[in-house]
Amino acid sequence: MIDAALFHGAAAPVGGAGLMIAILRALCLLGAMAAAWPGHRAFAQDVPLGAALRQENGYLRIQAKGREVRLESLIVRPEGVTGQLPLAIITHGRNSSSLSMGDLRAARYATLARDLARRGWLAAVVMRRGAGQSDGPLPSLASCPTPDIAGSFGDDTDDIEGALRALQARPDVDGQRVILLGESAGGATAMSLLRRKPPGLRGVINVAGGLNLEGCTERGQDALVAAMTAWQGPDTVPQLWIYARNDELFPPSLVARMRKAALDAGADVRFIDLPELKPRGHMAFLHGQGRHLWLREMDASLRAWGLPTIPRDRGRTLHAKLGLTTRLDVFERYFSGPGERAMALSRSKKEFRYWFGTPDLETAKANALRD
């Protein structure tokens, strides 16, 4: 029988029996630890486990090619946290259809932004020109007649660089701690920005990044490898690359060539080879199972880069405080899980059950309590 539940870090009694207040206090004390960064006066305080999040839907106004451009954005940050927060920019992939890109919305990536906010970040989803409700048109990228991938990302890179500057101007942003996360062409955009060395950029997380040229596979792959040489260098920030083994656009043999080109250029690239993901490996960015795997790898990289994320010992410490004695590895996975999550605990049996990956907390609660 489950006699208490932890709903996203808050203790709630079930069936009349509550958790000891000491356990609730332990939960509140195990907030995400902000990394020290000398030279800045105001740092965000630690983010308590289960802290409320605030979402802002709106637009960023940037300058591009001498004119003002408005980009759709969605921003999520911890509520009630004072000081400056590190900045995580999330950007999307694309396809060749301007119609389908216009139907894309920043809200598609809201759960990922919430995952970052729970780790102590101000997370901003940025829709580049031609996507969602951002100004247009959709920029042209490389094609079979003109397969210069490296040279075709100028407009997309301008958008992210402009968004970065606009967000760094916010008083609640620590502009010296910035990471970029991108999927597919968004990952390529993030890598393209590397060569511009924007101030404050500390790392890039590339999930299934690249550009697929339909109709000329071999030439397109060669162009993508050449882009890695053009974009990378010994002075670029560290990167985390994540690709599934069954990525239908960027197979393992191509990714190996891309990474070799980046490493040969002097780049610092950590590579994670995800298992096969169904139905499509290329959708790893928002794929439930895939995201659970790569978020844990992201946490490890963020710690290595000296940036805020889930403390390494959070699960182990709380496991001991709750008096649990088994399934430590399973318990630890809860804290890096994607989406909304809830844990149910049996104080008498010292058992737990949890659910994550749901779009809303109520569903996670119901599933965690289900027999």
Please provide a written account of the structure.
The protein is of the alpha/beta class and 371 residues long. The chain contains eleven helices and twelve strands. Strands 3-4-6-5-7-8-9-10 form an eight-stranded mixed β-sheet, sandwiched between helices. Strands 2-1-11-12 form a four-stranded antiparallel β-sheet, sandwiched between helices. Strand 9, helix 7 and strand 10 form a beta-alpha-beta unit. Helix 4 crosses helix 5 and helix 6 runs parallel beside helix 7. The longest helix has 17 residues. It is globular, with a radius of gyration of 21 Å.
Topology:
Layout: E1 4-7, E2 10-13, H1 21-29, E3 53-64, E4 67-78, E5 85-91, H2 98-103, H3 110-117, E6 122-126, H4 154-168, E7 173-183, H5 185-194, E8 201-207, H6 217-231, E9 239-244, H7 252-264, E10 269-274, H8 288-304, H9 314-321, H10 328-333, E11 340-346, E12 351-358, H11 361-369
Parallel strand pairs: 5-6, 5-7, 7-8, 8-9, 9-10
Antiparallel strand pairs: 1-2, 1-11, 3-4, 4-6, 11-12
| Average pLDDT, all residues | 87
Largest beta sheet: strand ordering: 3-4-6-5-7-8-9-10
Unreliable runs: 9-45
Strand content is: 15-25%
The separation of the N and C termini measures 8 Å
Radius of gyration: 21 Å
Can you give the helix content as a percent range? Answer: 25-40%
